[in-house]
Design a protein that fits this description.
The structure is a homodimer. By secondary structure, chain A is of the alpha/beta class. Chain A is built from twelve helices and 17 strands.
Amino acid sequence: MKGTVLHSPGDVRFETVDPRIEAPTDAVIRIAATCVCGSDLWPYRGLQPIEGPTPMGHEYCGYVEEVGSDVTSIEKGQFVIGSFATSDNTCPYCTFGYPSSCAQREFISRAQAPFLRVPLADGTLVATREAPPEDMLASLLTTSDVLGTGWFAADAAHVEPGATVVVVGDGAVGLLGVLSAKQMGAERIIAMSRHESRQELARTFGATDIVPERGDEGVERIRDMTKGIGADSVLECVGTNESMMQAIRSTRPGGHVSFVGVPHGVELAGEELFFSHVHLHGGPAPVRRYLPNLIQLVLDGAIDPGKVFDLTLPLEQVAEGYRAMDERRAIKALLQP
Amino acid sequence: MKGTVLHSPGDVRFETVDPRIEAPTDAVIRIAATCVCGSDLWPYRGLQPIEGPTPMGHEYCGYVEEVGSDVTSIEKGQFVIGSFATSDNTCPYCTFGYPSSCAQREFISRAQAPFLRVPLADGTLVATREAPPEDMLASLLTTSDVLGTGWFAADAAHVEPGATVVVVGDGAVGLLGVLSAKQMGAERIIAMSRHESRQELARTFGATDIVPERGDEGVERIRDMTKGIGADSVLECVGTNESMMQAIRSTRPGGHVSFVGVPHGVELAGEELFFSHVHLHGGPAPVRRYLPNLIQLVLDGAIDPGKVFDLTLPLEQVAEGYRAMDERRAIKALLQP
């Protein structure tokens, strides 16, 4: 069968792969939907080195095809969703609520394919009671990473009812950070965006204000809009040094900054951080912790995060999905096997 | 009258100063006790530039000598303690609990003197009901900065009942970080120290373990002592890049790192911070927020933080206080006018 492999920057191929049970704790699932992640663009753009041909994809949901002999909590035929990071759900880090730092963590990286081997299936996968309706697949898929990460951005930035929130970054994670902040009761949600279609989606998800300025000008605007005080919670959803400094400088003393994209070239000066008086928390989103709640919110129809997909392609056209996102013609590309 | 002035690195003089009411919101207090702070050693050692002769001292308690015409909450003769940072106690930052980022903040810098002008007296100073007994002066003095900062270190590192806590730095702030963690119910408190007298005091204040190793070796020891997991809360009480990295690397994913000394030469790599999964919070301690509680704990005899003073000198011998601390012959020098 075929799967997505990145050979070099810009060179995405759909070629033969062969997922099968390798350990008794594995499962193999038949992918119902997968997609391209903003973080896939770092190596695609050559901004993150790869060592030889690299299988791609870490967002997934689908039907259990086969389970290893030690798997007890899921069974063949069930619809399941898992995090981009595997977890045993029993180690101290999982117990502390950080399954994405699980002692046995592996990063999933072969999900843009019709079938996927998932290690630590018992800890990693969450099954729904029944097969979901087709029109919920897109939203359920988002819980696997992009929504889970936007949710973590809001959670790590301590969004509380009544809060003034700023979201730096209008990629899919940032947009779902807006949705998450809205769910957590934020009163004012300011989305930093200069792209009309993304501004519109931000408003749909709950943004009350749009600010197109960036960098120091963006900081200035936030100060103006908050009586000079700064925001309570700022979600940094880009991963560059500029966006990180913009986030920190937009936050009031005692406020919270989260950062959820792998930082590229970020160096924080201790003294500025000290006098900013902000709280800082980030890292790979502990998606597994949020999955049951997020899946339920989707199934209840309370949220519709699948709207971030503005391009749907057959899986074998995955290369076009990368191109469209790279050129910012698409916010996020859904891939159907 | 005389006061302490730093003329150049190593050159501390006790010379004429003249504190008096300058604004109607000022008070002038007669100092009952003051002291030398670890942070005074940065400019003393030439590691922080000064622009010309610099009046020194920011830890103080004493009796109100005179108040400006707008001062309403304190009156002549009262015993008062204030933070090293002035605050109006009414601006948004104060309201959020960060008086040390008050919109009207000034840093006190003339307290190593018999008299001190305190701006924003109503917001900054806390009066006791009656004049305290002489033998509580040392402990009350600590609430003005060194205990308040140690307390913030424990609070910002989210010390909770049952927690495993590491304190990096065995200066007076670190030692009172130990005391604070103990008060907050920490179960295990590991003090990083290689000086016998400081180790002893750390144990007196509640340390359960002493680790003399530093840097990577120190991190290794903490990992060993916590079954490879890392500590829940780590208090960084030094301010160098080495101590900051040691603190971050000693913390478990999801754990909390606080930093309370002005960082000197600290640069944090975004990617390491990201994968560390720690929470980070620090800055100038919001001492004014803690003052009423800390003063009460001292007056109740619940804590005895004054033990950090292992040298007491007449104020006019302030230069010897700096020398003794610089040479680590003393943990902290109390100065008596």
